[in-house]
TrEMBL record:
It comes from freshwater metagenome. This is Unannotated protein. The lineage of its organism: unclassified sequences, metagenomes, ecological metagenomes. Residues 1-81 form the Rieske domain. Coiled coil: none annotated. One of its GO terms (molecular function) is 2 iron, 2 sulfur cluster binding.
Amino acid sequence: MVKIVDDRKIVVTKSAAGQVHAFSAVCTHSGCTVKGVEAGSILCVCHGSQFNPVTGAVVQGPAQTPLATIPVQVRNGIVDFA
């Protein structure tokens, strides 16, 4: 599962184990908004950077810095950003 919260520029992912993760949806390479998960990575279509959907780490450049982690909690099935 992946959801991009456009008004806050946050990308939310859910792992196969059910863990929810949130990151800045702004690519650290040139500031484009990532477009979602493709082939197991968060993808920025501007220049092809890919990020791990669980950690935000760079999987493939040109980005060299991971996506910023956004604190998140799930309460009664609702995602809440800290």
